[in-house]
Amino acid sequence: MPAKLRKTVRKEIRDNLLSQLKLKSADLTLYEDMVDDYMRLWDLKELLIEDIAEHGLTKMYGSVMKENPSPKQLPIVNRQMLALLSQLGISADTVNGGGGGYVPL
Questions:
Q1: b vs e for 84-100, b when ≥16 Cβ sit within 10 Å of the residue's Cβ?
Q2: Are 27 and 88 in contact (CB under 8 A)?
Q3: Lesser CB count within 10 Å: N end or C end of the chain?
Q4: Is the dihedral of CA 72, 57, 36, 17 positive or negative?
């Protein structure tokens, strides 16, 4: 994803999550910090996807071809992102309207 688009999508996701907290009257510092954790994981997920796209399943380390760890790390990061959404009480069943734009599920 191009950097400019990534920045726009990232902002929309963060804004949507914060909007969901506000609609639940849960816009507290603790939960906003969890949203920031989610966004750091989102950034990591995007980097892993880029690494997989660039290198595939194997990667050169010096003169040695080794397995690229990114494909194994991606589902772990995705699970953690889903766990954070669950802790925030945000799921496809609980998303409230009014945020507009992209809603992460």
A1: bbeebebeeeebeeebe
A2: no
A3: C
A4: negative
Per residue in 43-68, pLDDT (tens digit) is: 999 999 999 999 999 998 899 999 99
CA 22, distance to chain mean position in Å, is 20
C-alpha distances (whole Å) from 44 to each of 27, 50, 75 are 24, 10, 12
CA dist., res. 17 & res. 31, Å (int): 10
Distance between CA atoms of 62 and 9, rounded to whole angstroms?
35
Every domain of the chain and the residues it spans? 3-87
Ramachandran angles phi, psi of 41, nearest 5°: -65, -35
Rounded-to-integer distance, Cα 45 and Cα 62, Å: 25
Question: Among residues 22, 8, 30, which one has the least CA distance to residue 102?
Answer: 8
